[in-house]
Structures are given as structure tokens and as C-alpha cells.
Amino acid sequence: MKFKQKFNIDYEYEVIFTHNLFCEDNSTLTDLLGENESKAIFFIDEGVDKVFPSLKKDIIRWSEKNPGVLDLKLPVQIIEGGEKIKNNFQVIENICNAMTEAAICRHSYCFIIGGGAVLDAVGFAAAIFHRGVNQIRIPTTVLSQDDSGVGVKNAINHNGVKNLFGTFYPPYAVLNDSLFLTALSKREILSGVAEAIKVSIIKDQDFFYYIKNNAEAISNCDMMILETIISKSAKLHMDHICNGGDPFEKGSSRPLDFGHWSAHKLESMTNHEVKHGEAVAMGLALDAFAAVKLNLISESTCEDIITTLVDCGFELWHPDLEKRDSKGQLMIIKGLREFQEHLGGELTLAMPTKIGTIKDIHEMPTIVVEEALDQLKAVAAK
Taking the mean position of all CA atoms in its chain, how far away is CA 52? Predict the structure, then answer.
């Protein structure tokens, strides 16, 4: 005897673009949640708290001036920011303890204000607390507004492996507040632009050449151009999750991870001294050179990719890319095995065949990586 169970679940969430979300007369939250007062707890990245010291008071003032929307529980929680928050499971227990003390339930809201790492860690805690409470993400970096913050994943690191523990738990909503971008350094801004370049290479030729043609403005942190890039990148990432046929990544194909196999490894090798987006930019360049050697793209297409990255202001080399182990083997190559283990199944790498089009390959010969690294080092030295 056997029974077959099958069901489908509809899920939708909004990604809303606004400015100065907690200004007293900003109605974004009221429009989103309605006047049906719900318990809420706020977690704020300590880096954001330092740059916007009035944010806690602004949240409380907004709630007082807009009664009937949020029932704030506990003082606003300030938590550690940056990748280090994802390296300690005790942080997850502390977040869950705070939600327990606030009597947060499945009808409550967990607001997360911060960069991608904070969204990941608090989002993971929210996903496992009571088997999932409503998380409202308020990303504060370009990287989290145009990529990680609009997706359905949450994760923390373990034993040096990036995102080893995680969940697929979509947010209730994502609120992209451009006010937070005004405090970012050029380095932080570029880190997010890398993911926009990535998704343009694999998804949208017109978008790629928009970025290429506006590279100088991007390098100068032109906010008008950046807001356009962020919204377009966010939409492309969302469209892939919705229409790519694999929102919870059951298969081995992972187009949005183009350029990431070496990026993830470089991040861990440098103890996250290299930011995620910086590592992705190097990974995109490395894979572009490799794609030429594998006869997937033309040299002119590769040149367009490299030129765009350089003109936007990216550094394309780090000494650890050529680090070798005691046996003389390139350590970055181990990123291929770790990437395969993370995906499961056979090694599957998304590679461009032209701008806007990709195909999956299942092998990346060491000699190709060696030669691509040589080219990358030479270009970076110019």
C-alpha cells in the first residue's frame, strides 16, 4: 500500500522601493501591513546604527505617529554586522531568545535592517523560530538591495564552509530604502554592482551595455544611475527565482552563481578581507577568460566584460588567487569541489555563450584555470 501526496503552495511578496522609510509621513508600512496592530521586533546591524544613530528613535516615533500598525516589543535590538555574524551559532540562539522574550509568534513581524550577512543570519533565525515567522527585510547595501535581500534564501556559515546551514524561507516583504545607500563607501557600493554585472551577463544584454556605457558614472557613485541598476538587477534576480523552474534549488544548475565558485573560495581564503562583491568581480573575470579558452565566448565578448569591470572601478587581482598548497596545487581550485558539494550532483557551472545567454558545463580543467589566472594577473597589472 502507498499514498502519494502532492500539493502546490502559492507565495508572493512585494519588493518596494522608497526613501526615508521611517519618516513620520511615509505611508509604506501602513500600506503594506494595514491598521491591524501586530507584534513586531526590530534587529539593526550595528554598522547601520552607528551611521544612523537616530534610527531607533525614528522607528519608535513612526510607530507612535502611526498608531494601530506596529506593537513594538522589547527595545530595538542592535546586533553584530558583517560576515562574522554568520560564523557563530550562538548569535542565532541569542536572536531566538530575544524573539521568545518578546513573545513573537507566527503572526508577528521580525524586521531586519542591515546588510546581506545580517539579513542572512537573522533571516535564518526567523525561519526556524516557530517554524517560521514573518520577516520583513530592509536591506541597507547595494548588494543586499539588488541581489541577496530580494531572494528566498537564509544561511549561516559553519566550519569555514559558506552558507552550510540554511533555509529557503521567503520574506513577507522587502523594503529597499535608498536613504541607507547615501552612507555607503565606494567600496561597499561597487561590491553590490558586481552582482548587477553578473546578472546582466547571464540574463540581459541591454542591461549589460547600459552598465558598460555608464561605467564612469558608476565609478563616481552617481546615485541616479545606481538606483536604476539596483532596481533592474533586483527584478532580474526575482524573475529568475519565479520563472527559472527551481526556486528552492533542488537541481544542480545555478545560473545566478555564475562567477561564484572561485569567489566563495577566495572569500574564505582571505578570511573575508575580500568582500563578497569584490570576489565575485574577480570570479566573473576569471570565468570570462576561461569561457574563451573553452570556446564558449569570443575574445571581444570577454574584453567587454573585463573592460566593464575595470571601468567601474574593480580590482581584478588578489595574491591569494595564485596560492598553492604543500603539494603545489592551486588552492582556489578546491573551490570547484566545494561548489559541487554545495550544489549536490555533478559539477555544474553556468557559463556565458554570449552576453545575455548561458549554458551549463560540467568540467573546468585545471589547465584552463591556470591559464585564465595568468591572463587575469596580466590584465590587473596594467
Answer: 22
What DSSP string runs through 13-30? -EEEEESSTTSTT--HHH
For 189, phi then psi, to 5°, come to: -65, -50
Amino acid letter for position 62: W
Answer CATH for 187-381 from 1.20.1090.10, 3.40.50.720, 1.20.120.160, 3.40.630.10: 1.20.1090.10
Place of cell 513573537: 104
Q: Torsion angle of alpha carbons 364, 367, 371, 377, nearest 10°?
A: 80
Question: How far is C-alpha 164 from the geometric centre of its chain's CA atoms?
Answer: 15
Q: In which residue ranges of the chain is CATH 1.20.1090.10 found? A: 187-381
Find where cell 517554524 sits.
Answer: 131
Nearest to 364, CA basis, from 350, 353, 375, 376: 350
The boundaries of every CATH 3.40.50.1970 domain in the chain are 14-183
Contacts of 350 (CB under 8 A, 6+ apart): 202, 253, 254, 255, 256, 257, 258, 358, 359, 360
| Domain range 14-183, CATH class | alpha beta
Rounded to whole angstroms, the Cα distance separating 382 from 377 reads: 9
The model's pLDDT over 59-86, given as tens digits with 9 standing for 90+, comes to: 999 999 999 999 988 889 999 998 889 9
List, for residues 124-145, the tens digit of each pLDDT value: 999 999 999 999 999 999 999 9
What is the DSSP pairing of strand 357-361 with strand 349-354? antiparallel
> Rounded to whole angstroms, how far apart are CA atoms 94 and 77?
11
